[in-house]
PadR family transcriptional regulator (Kribbella rubisoli), 189 residues
Amino acid sequence: MHGGRGERSGRGERGERGERGPRGSGRGSGRGRAPRGDVRTAVLMLLAEEPMHGYQLMQAIADRSDGRWTPSPGAIYPTLNQLEDEGLVTVTAEAGRKLVTLTDAGREYVEGRRETSIDPFAAFASAGPTADLRGLIDELASATRQVARTGSEEQRTAAAKILAEARRSLYLLLADAPVVPEPPKTPEA
């Protein structure tokens, strides 16, 4: 069941371009996510270059955004279904995979909006060091969860000290104070 343009879905209203949320706005740009309309634009732009499988589209989006935006299958495949329903793409089985190709109507749609469409990858190219920090934060959180789940008590204690020291160093950095590691605490006898 695919709602048409402007129809209500179970999770919110669809905007004019297919985005979810009030009045069609997306969820924002946190954690490598983009509004659904941006996924749609990215998919159409990539398919204008060559036919691709769903997984190839996810990889191409990740590559074009330098890894800062990796859409999930839950973002790509509903978008492809919607584009197919609109007659903008065809999906054909090829070697056990579904190859997605722009139709003539899809090519006309892309060409007609080339001048007015915003490049969905531009925001990631200009994101600069802030986006790099977000990626590092995500990686640090992932490593921390791994230690919390599978590490020994000693490893979890060491990880807590490392995180506390990192937090302290970041605040010192903001205070323009020299970042000097705290001397190790010796147990009192």
The first strand starts at residue 8 and ends at 9. Residues 1-31 have pLDDT under 50 and may be disordered. The helical segments are 36-49, 54-64, 73-85, 104-113, 122-125, 128-150, 153-174. The chain has two domains: 37-126, 130-174.
